Amino acid sequence: MNQLQVLVKIIPQLLSDGLALGFVYAIVALGYTMVYGILEFINFAHSELFMFGAFVGTEVLLLLKSAGILADMSPTVALLLSMLVAMIFSGALGVTVDRVAYRPVRSAPKLVPFISAIGVSFILQDLVRMVEEAKNGKFYLNAPTLFTNRITLAPNMVVPEKTLYIVGLCLLMMVALTLFVSKNKWGKAMRAVAQDRETARLMGINVDKVIALTFLIGAALGGAAGTLFSVQYGSISPYSGFVLGMKAFTAAVFGGIGKIPGAMLGGILLGLIEVFGASFLGALTGGVFGSEYKDVLAFAILILILIFKPSGLLGKPVGEKV
Amino acid sequence: MKRALSPLVSLLVAITLLAGGVSAVAQTALPVIKIASVTPLSGSQAAMGETIKDGIELALNERVEEFKALGFDLQFAPQDDQADPKVGVSIAQRLIEDKDILAIVGHWNSGVAIPSSEVYNQGNLAMVSPANTAVAVTDRALPVVNRICARDDAQGPAGADYLFSLGLTSVFILQDKTAYGQGVADEFQKRYIALGGQVLGYEGITAGEADYSAVEEMIRASGAQAVYFGGIYPEGALLIKQLKEKGIEVTFLGPDGMDSAELVNIAGEAVVGTYYTSTAADVSGTEKGAAFAAAFKARFGHNPEGYAAYGYDALNVTLDAIKRAIDANGGALPTREQVVTAVRATSGYEGLATNVTFNEIGDNTEATVYVLGFSEAAYPPAVIKAIPVAEYLKK
User: Fold this and answer.
1) Into how many domains does chain B fold?
2) Does the model's pTM come out above 0.80?
3) Smallest Cα–Cα separation from A45: which of A102, A5, A3, A109?
4) Nearest-angstrom CA–CA distance, B232 and B239
5) Are residues B9 and B106 both part of a single domain?
6) Contact: A291, B203; criterion CB under 8 Å
7) What is the 8-class DSSP label of residue B273?
8) Which residue in B has a C-alpha nearest to residue A283's C-alpha?
9) Is pLDDT of B60 > 50?
10) Would the N or C end of chain A have less CB density within 10 A of its end CB?
11) CB–CB contact B202 A6 (8 Å)
12) How many CB atoms lie within 10 A of CB A233?
């Protein structure tokens, strides 16, 4: 049996791994894209809101564990609880960051809030590192094991239970966000502000409130994704957000920045490309490029697509905003 | 906490030095032989440096009287290189200027030992390293540089021999694309193929990432019996954990980059049944080792760790060589050149942690690589096998 045939056998398995990674990317990408849609501004500190959420969620789990409750409670409840707390903390931090670092420079040239975001990113990284080091004597955290079961979905597809939870919860968040934006009054206000901030203001929409709400939702989603990430992969550091944030941002651009469905599609595709690329690259290139070149492959594909479709997969060529 | 200690440590060092100076004044009759230890005594790696220094100090104090009988005043000069190559080099400059210093025992970090030893070489100052495993330490063939521990490139072949001895004839190799990780993985591969083993895959992973599912699935698909991972514990632990969660049953082996209590913290129960190789082992199980541990505890109030016993042996190797140089010199104080030659000529030293015979580039032909295995999720794991490295030395 040659190597390619072997790899074909693991396709279903790779599909589930790629989806789990892709959904995490997608949820984080939503935070980038929502803020961009409204402010035309890349919130580079979003990766740190993700990381912050991962730490808060993991600390909640560790707290439950050290209190001896974790073993007795249902892992689903523990996961939801830690995710909820992480969402609250990350959301609050997102709003605070906007209020402190972005709002004062909102009317300044575009580069100013961008630099401000980079600054916030550094501060948050080292703040978390400092607190964790003072608290635990080391700056990274290991999530306790929540789900141990594996579920056989198909002959070649054995999936850890937690992966199913992660995909399921991400889907749920996506549906909820889509409904909120399309049906809810505040969702409509968000779309109005995204289309034309000044006119929206004239129509009686409290623009600052809507912007704060956008940061709240984006950051809360980031925090939830952080917790899921920590549970899925087991270990986080204050610098975990950086690479993941880069990829999520790329996913947002890939799907069409400013477009909520675009971020979802872009994230999922990027996760799949990465996982499949890592497995197939060696076989396809006769061993010249191994799995370590997966990011090169992923980004090469992205650049190719963006050359032919600069506004991203779901972006409209002319329209600037949502 | 460690940082807060550093002024205290430097104060202690200063007092020790001062005390040494005072006693030197008091006993001007005897010519002075000073041995310096150079390890990190402050900063994040101070704990390892401190325990090695203590091991050296213990050995030195045991032999002060012996040297007094020979007509010399043996003194100890502990130095703090802060695990920093710049500091190491500036200390080395100072040490070669101090004519009483006849040899140094150090360092802890290969990255510090390599540039510092260039300076020792200029000053003809013999260095005996207890713990530097990087191949470049001795591969530069400097006459002054010697080490009593095994080389990094012995770990790969030793790992291959061990897996093969378990009857595991197919392996999937992973490495983390660092000089260290790829280095051991490649050495492992060479040996494993030479033994007749089947390498079913060889992939690199990116350190610092968290999702290794793609390579894990490749391992599953390849049907390999074992995984060799050239890399460090953060990624190794995640691999162990994720392989277990995915239900991929393989025997996992790595090099001493895996040697950390964090391996158990990250991987949890999944760590049971995994192995790593190391160039150092806990000696407290042996009779000599138990006596050493007791004497160590009595003097310093805490147990010896990691390379402490290697510090002890390195110092004894050095003093034995100096003693031979004194004899050869008709009982007079030997020159640094004579000490360098005498150290390199060390042969058949029987020590606590290791026996020592240096080859022509200063590698110890009697060094050992240990295989350690987890039978429960607790650190440190037990030594399962000691593999002599003589066969793996190329020169």
Assistant:
1) 2
2) no
3) A102
4) 11
5) yes
6) yes
7) T
8) B201
9) yes
10) N
11) no
12) 22
3 state SS for B316-371: HHHHHHHHHHHHHCCCCCCCHHHHHHHHHCCCCECCCCCCECECCCCCECCCEEEE
- Residue A31 belongs to what domain range? 3-308
If asked whether residues B260 and B381 sit together in one domain, one would say yes
3-state secondary structure of A164: helix
**What does the pLDDT look like over B288-321, one tens digit per residue?**
889 999 999 999 988 888 789 999 999 999 999 9
Give the total residue count for chain B: 395
Residue B201 in contact with residue B222, Cβ under 8 Å? Answer: yes
Residues B184 and B234 in one domain: yes
How near does any CA of chain A get to the CA of B204, in Å?
A: 5
Judge contact between A176 and A166, C-beta under 8 A.
no
Residue range of the domain that includes B336: 2-150+284-364
B45, pLDDT greater than 50 = yes
Predicted local distance difference test score (pLDDT) of residue B323: 95
Over range B101-106, report the average pLDDT: 95
Contacts of A150 in chain B (CB under 8 A): 245-247
Name every residue whose Cβ is closer than 8 Å to that of residue A239 and which is 6 or more positions away in sequence: A51, A125, B208
Residue A84 and residue A237: Cα distance in Å, rounded? 20
Of residues B317, B308, B309, the one with CA closest to residue B350: B317
**Contacting A residues, span 227-266, partner chain B, CB-CB under 8 Å:** 229, 232-236, 239-240, 243
Q: How far apart, in whole angstroms, are the C-alpha atoms of residue A201 and residue A192? A: 9
Q: Is B129 helix (H, G, I), strand (E, B) or coil?
A: strand
Per the structure, the count of domains in chain A is 1
Please tell me the distance from the alpha carbon of residue B209 to that of residue A134, in angstroms, as a whole number.
25
The domain spanning residue B71 has which CATH number? Answer: 3.40.50.2300
Q: Do B210 and A235 touch (CB under 8 A)?
A: yes
Q: Is the pLDDT of residue B54 over 50?
A: yes
Do A275 and B213 count as a contact with CB atoms less than 8 A apart? yes
In degrees, rounded to 5, the angle at the alpha carbon of residue B261 between the alpha carbons of residues B259 and B267 is 95
Query: Among A8, A159, A235, which would you mutate to test the B interface (most chain B Cβ atoms within 10 Å of its Cβ)?
Result: A235
Q: Which residues contact B206 (CB under 8 A, 6 or more apart)?
A: A292, A295, B176, B177
Three-class SS of B147-163: ECCCCHHHHHHHHHHHH
Rounded (10°) angle between helices A260-284 and A11-39: 140
Residue range A181-187: mean pLDDT, rounded: 92
Q: How far apart are CA A117 and CA B118, in angstroms?
A: 46
The answer to whether residues B109 and B36 belong to one domain is: yes
Spatial CB neighbours of B51, under 8 Å, sequence gap ≥ 6: B304, B305, B306, B307, B308, B311
Same domain, B208 and B329: no
* Token duo for residue A292: 């370590």
Q: How far apart are CA A152 and CA A164, in angstroms?
A: 11
| Upper half-sphere CA count for residue B92 (Cβ side, 13 Å) | 26
* Alpha helices by DSSP H, A107-151: 111-136
Tell whether B207 lies on the interface with A, counting CB pairs under 8 A: no
Chain A positions touching B209 (Cβ under 8 A) are: 243
CB contact under 8 A, B214 and A290: no
Check pLDDT > 90 for residue B167: yes
Confidence at A53, pLDDT banded by 50, 70, 90: very high
Q: Please report whether residue A314 resides in a domain.
A: no
Please state at what angle helix A294-308 crosses helix A260-284, rounded to 10 degrees: 130
B306 & B360 share domain: yes
Q: Do both B44 and B130 map to the same domain?
A: yes
Q: What is the average per-residue pLDDT within B364-390?
A: 90
CA nearest neighbour of B63 among B27, B33, B29, B104: B33
